[in-house]
Amino acid sequence: MENGSGKAIGTLRVKTGLAEMLKGGVIMDVVNAEQAKIAEDAGAVAVMALERVPADIRAAGGVARMADPTIVEEIVGAVSIPVMAKCRIGHFVEAQVLQALGADYIDESEVLTPADEEYHVDKWQFTVPFVCGCRNLGEALRRIAEGAAMVRTKGEPGTGNVVEAVRHMRTVTDEIAWLKGLRGEQLFTAAKDLQAPYELVKWVAENGKLPVVNFSAGGIATPADAALMMQLGCDGVFVGSGIFKSGDPSARAKAIVEATTHYDDPAIVAKVSRGLGEAMVGINISEIPAEQRMQERGW
Amino acid sequence: MKVGVLALQGAFREHIMSLEALGATAVAVRLPEQLDDCAGLVIPGGESTAISKLMTSYGFYEPIRRRHDEGMAIWGTCAGAILIAKEIVDAVPDQRPLALMDVVVRRNAYGRQVDSFEADIEFDALRDPFRGVFIRAPWIESVGAEVEILASHEGHVVAARQGDSMATAFHPELTGDPRVHRYFLEGVVAG
Fold it and tell me: Is the ipTM of this complex over 0.90?
């Protein structure tokens, strides 16, 4: 895609570059233009255009698919911040459609019902960048090998329960620390154990971090939840059901944005946490049957 | 030399690393009082709406303007270039610029993410071309008489300077090439 001036679109640097610009920010799930504007006004760095938030997907059951194009277009037209949208795992045609609709990032997401139980989308074929979920380092590196320009730890979407988000973030961090301590020949076996490409494993061992931006997702419902994930080392947060399933979405959204910026200043987290009304009603993970846990989707 | 990097949101860590690699002391600025001993301030790329809302909530406008009047140099990249402009085209409602540079900047001028690109840029004061990374980038639509144009791309101004203020539409902090950071430290902050 180069021309005479050396101009190039859709390069890895351009794809990962947008994720770099989102760092320290909050990406909010929205289902219509009105919610998208509330998110933008609250200081969201991007919105995720959906037909239903994960809590409602969970409640509705059935097959969850890419949002109706009219919803994506409505949201793209309503705000000037980046708009992300979800496609089903492996559904490369939904991804093509979302790219054509002007989505700025595609989330190949376990929140929707997988379309392919063997293959994820070959993300190198697209100009638009992708973000994918992970529960551990191996899963993150497999997605990056497929072309993901950003990852997010999965957590358990639609629960308002941060415990799985914490588990996945800690797992990724611990595995990176483990790789850093390995000798050269041990990295080959580590790559086998992680089921990840050796070159990426070696890069992580040498640099002590993921090669792309990593946000936290799946269960963040309060400003303190967001600050917790930031202190655990993520680059920013996705908040799905936690905002628009709460009593006062606008105030809560703004508070989560401020807590994400000032995550290491407890006085500010305390100040912004006051008087936000009801948080979303949470679900204990043990109450969700194993086959309904979204984090198990993808491999 | 101590340089602050506004760390409310965006790619501030990359600026800090780039500046420190050149021997400067770079600090993440999250509260206005941290500006007091900074000789320069970088406003990084990020989402200009999110950054401007946090700047309002935490009272940054007046202190940045005051410190700039007192001689603090300033460099805005991408979102930062939008925020230091005199006027923003396609701003969101209530989005106020700092008005530290006599330029008009257009937000999202190149379009959506699929239109984001990288290209070689002829940057005045650098001998060889610089790889410009443009992410949902703005461009500088017009400049005042006091403003020096540092770089243009396909007919649009993408870098400019006015005294101790500099704006770039692209992201030198994503390239690993230190030349624009060096220009800022040696030519704008110390200059």
Answer: yes
